[in-house]
Amino acid sequence: MAQTVRGRFAPSPTGLAHLGNAWSFLLAWLAARQAGGEILLRMEDLDLERCSPVYMQLLMSDMRWLGLDWDEGPTPERELAAYHQSNRFPLYEEALQMLVSRGLAYPCFCSRKDVRSMASAPHVGDAGAAYPGTCRGLHPAEAARRIAKGERFSWRFRSTDRVYRFADGLYGLQERALADCGGDFSLRRSDGVFSYQLAVSVDDALMGVTQVVRGRDILPSTPRQLALLDALGLEAPSYVHIPLLLDAEGERLAKRHASLSLRSLRDLGVSPWRVVGLLARAAGLCDRLEEVHPRDLVHSFQISTMPPADYKLSDNDMAWLTGRGEERGKHH
Ligand code: GLU
């Protein structure tokens, strides 16, 4: 029997959800639903100082408002600790220890400032400057001595020159070595916060996720996650990276775009079906701007035929979304 597709939403609740989040959620939801699969919601609240339970509540309510549901995970009415990364540290610790015991992780004493100043010189991949490997060759006895002395240290993955290959569901075959994606990446910061790469790899595997749909800005992370999954003996999901939604100036939507938060659109009285309609148009699922319910898009959805270019929201799109366009029409 074919495996059931299990997708996921994995937001970081550090601000109000915006159109960009709705876009990723909608596409992940459609990909799972179209395959008759399930979708789970996981809160990526690793960095407790930046995340807030209020944003989590608002995000869940905003997703529901758009007509997007999920089969597993917390809901606005019910907390589910196991779907919050902040409650899963023992699992990440176990994975880290396994890597350490296999010689695949090493302590690094470089401060962030050190890494930044070293960064201008050597290899610069598309994940930013690669870590030059300063602490990679430290003798274990020397590292143990510095740790015993109380020096702060992070843990890094010991990369090899292996090339990781995967067939992206939209962008096709991808081949990258870790040297092109940041080199020996961090597994745990010196303040004890586990890295996104470690947590997401462990969680996707342990939660049985088979299909990851996420922004193409995360593409350089995928080889790192494949490396971790392989090192931990865990199965990798399939990956579909999706184009980004950009503002009228061509900038990626971010939490600072307050006017594009779902909350402010709701406050303006914008219909959720209009939001979905705009996103569907941007994804090439409708040939004109019209109100639509996510359910109505499931049947014909095919992620592989989506236009792969980023979508820039035009003034016309925004006018349609907020009803300004029509109002102008009415008055003249
Ligand atoms: N938590 C990440 C974000 O909100 C998404 C990570 C992922 O999809 O792998 O950007």
**Global geometry:** elongated
CATH class category label of one domain: Alpha Beta
Q: How are helices and strands ordered from N to C?
A: EHEHHEHEEHEEEEHEHEEHHHEHH
Cα-based radius of gyration, to the nearest Å: 21 Å
Helix percent reads 25-40%
The total beta strand count reads 13
The percent range for strand residues is 5-15%
The CATH topology annotation of one domain reads as Glutamyl-tRNA Synthetase, domain 3
Arrangement of strands in the largest sheet: 3-6-9
Query: If you average the pLDDT, what whole number results?
Result: 92
| Largest sheet: number of strands, sense, barrel closure | 3 strands, antiparallel
User: Ligands bound here?
Assistant: glutamic acid
For the structure shown, list the relevant keywords.
12 helices; 36% helix; Glutamyl-tRNA Synthetase, domain 3; 332 residues; alpha/beta; binds glutamic acid
Walk me through what this model shows.
The protein has 332 residues and is α/β, with parallel strands linked by helices. The chain has a domain at 87-206: Glutamyl-tRNA Synthetase, Domain 3 (Glutamyl-tRNA Synthetase, domain 3, Alpha-Beta Complex). The protein has helices spanning 19-34, 53-65, 89-101, 112-119, 140-148, 196-206, 222-232, 262-267, 272-282, 295-298, 315-322, 324-331; strands at 6-9, 38-41, 105-108, 124-125, 128-129, 154-157, 163-168, 172-177, 186-188, 211-215, 238-242, 245-246, 311-312. The strands form six sheets. It has a three-stranded antiparallel beta sheet with strand order 3-6-9. α6 crosses α7. It is elongated, with a radius of gyration of 21 Å. The model is unreliable at 327-332 (pLDDT under 50).
